[in-house]
Amino acid sequence: MNELRWFTWLFPLLFIVHDMEEIMRAKQWCKKGLRQFIPLPITPFGNTNNTAAFSAGVFEELILWMSATLLGNITGFYGLWYGLLTANIIHLVLFHIILLPLSYRHYVPGEVTAWLTLFPCCYILILAQKVLNYSVVEIVLWVTIGLVFAFGNVKILHKNMHQLARLVG
Questions:
Q1: How would you class 128 by CB atoms within 10 Å of its CB: exposed for 0-12, middle for 13-18, buried for 19 or more?
Q2: Of residues 82, 75, 71, the one with CA closest to residue 11
Q3: How many Å from the N-terminal Cα to the C-terminal Cα in the chain?
Q4: Helices (H), 32-135
Q5: pLDDT surpassing 70 at residue 47
Q6: What pLDDT, on the 0 to 100 scale, is given for residue 130?
Q7: DSSP code of 99?
Q8: Tens digits of per-residue pLDDT, 83-113?
Q9: How many whole angstroms separate alpha carbon 63 and alpha carbon 77?
Q10: Is residue 1 very low, low, confident or very high in pLDDT (cuts 50, 70, 90)?
Q11: Do 87 and 147 touch, CB atoms closer than 8 A?
Q12: Cα–Cα distance between 163 and 165 in angstroms, integer?
């Protein structure tokens, strides 16, 4: 279990590496005014080119991911952490590797680090499964909770990005 405690902190670290690429490239990318060739119901950055607002949203997510990690390491309850890590992997693959690059037919911020962080995240998930030995039912439960929590949080952040922009200037 001690090995898992160390590895759990790689999830928030890899998350912030990925999101730093998005933060650094978002404004310049948004200025290009690229259009989606394949219309999707999602757009990067919650329809804002306000880097401060996007960064505030990323910070909120980082606090949540770190809280789940801390909870796991203090209590030994890793279910939420496991679900959120899986949701992050799905996010990297579905949005940054498949949907957004195909839709825009152009580089999308976060695409490079999605590839770079995907494999370490998958390794951490495999290691966690070996240590935690979750049953199929537990995996389905925690992944479902993680997906609902993570994607619900992102949906709320994107919907309120304009308010975040006003709040952070």
A1: buried
A2: 82
A3: 44
A4: 51-75, 79-91, 100-104, 111-132
A5: no
A6: 96
A7: I
A8: 999 999 999 999 999 999 999 998 999 999 9
A9: 18
A10: low
A11: yes
A12: 5
| pTM given for the model | 0.92
**Domain residue limits, the chain:** 2-32+42-168
By the 8 A CB rule, do 108 and 96 touch?
yes
Greatest pairwise CA separation for the chain in angstroms: 48
Kindly list the distances between the CA atom of residue 43 and the CA atoms of 51, 59, 60, in Å, as whole numbers in the listed order.
15, 19, 19
Structure tokens at 140: 């389905």
Residues 6+ apart with CB under 8 A from 102: 38
- CA distances 55 to 80, 117, 157, 165, Å, are 24, 19, 11, 10
Q: Rg of the chain's alpha carbons, rounded to an integer?
A: 16
- What does the pLDDT read at residue 53? 83
- AA identity, residue 94: L
Check if the beta carbon of residue 8 is closer than 8 Å to that of residue 81: yes
Determine contact, residues 4/73, Cβ cutoff 8 Å: no
Handedness of CA 74, 80, 85, 91 (dihedral sign): negative
CB 122 within 8 A of CB 82: no
Q: What is the mean pLDDT of residues 137-142?
A: 98
